[in-house]
Amino acid sequence: MSEPLAQYLTSEFWHAFTVLLRISAFVSVMPAFGERTVPTRVKMGIAIAFTAIVAPALGERFEPVNFAAFARLAMTEIVVGLVLGIMVRLFVLGLQTAGSIAAQATSLSQILGGAAVEPVPAMGFLLVMAGLTLAVMTGLHVRAAEYAILSYQLFPAGTLPNASDLTRWGVGQIATVFALAFSLAAPFVIASLIYNLAMGAINRAMPQLMVAFVGAPVITFGGLFILFAATPLLLTIWVDAVNDFLMNPLGGPR
């Protein structure tokens, strides 16, 4: 760079700063570390910590030769970082979708619906909080650092992702996440189907019985019991899916 300040900045600085651009965008939308409840200063500290891990692991050095090259590099790195973070963030949306499906199926969708930052049913809020906690405890930060290092092989610095390839990757990831969400909510949907069939049969056999007064406590208790019994297994499946994606981002739907 031709500016007077550039003579005091070494190649190591530009390399670290370029990595920080991608990492900061990635952390801003990353699950757990990029939540709205996390203060901006904490997010910046996390981004710097990830940069200190990722930058030395890269063999290539990034040093713009002029302001135009730096502007292009900054734009592409921020875009790539956001793409990387959004792809992982989709798993959180999938967990929220699973909670919403489960809550609707078991008539629990209106309890504490606005307790979270995002308006989701209480069942979805509990699943998301438990899932993020379990992910962090099982090494989400390690997988995220590996994912960031691998991203430079998928998207070299200074190069915008190909639109058609990015579209296919995004559509495949969305399909994977929705399939995972429905799979996680399947026990609640099956229980709701059995409940409705049973209530329909009882109503036909005894029309004078107010089946709603009998069935409402049953489906509520059943939904809470399934949540209590199945949550450990459901969260384990979800965390495994997140780790599989971070280790093999282009693996596609299973």
From TrEMBL:
- The principal location of this protein is membrane
Give the record's GO biological process terms: protein targeting
Q: Which GO terms describe its cellular component?
A: plasma membrane
Quote the subcellular location field of this record.
Cell membrane
Q: Where are the transmembrane segments?
A: 13-33, 40-58, 78-99, 120-142, 174-197, 209-239
From the UniProt record, list the coiled-coil ranges.
none
UniProt keyword list: Cell membrane, Membrane, Transmembrane, Transmembrane helix
- Membrane topology (UniProt): Multi-pass membrane protein
Pfam families per record: Bac_export_1
> In which family does this protein belong, per the annotation?
Belongs to the FliR/MopE/SpaR family.
Query: What is the protein name for this chain?
Result: Flagellar biosynthetic protein FliR
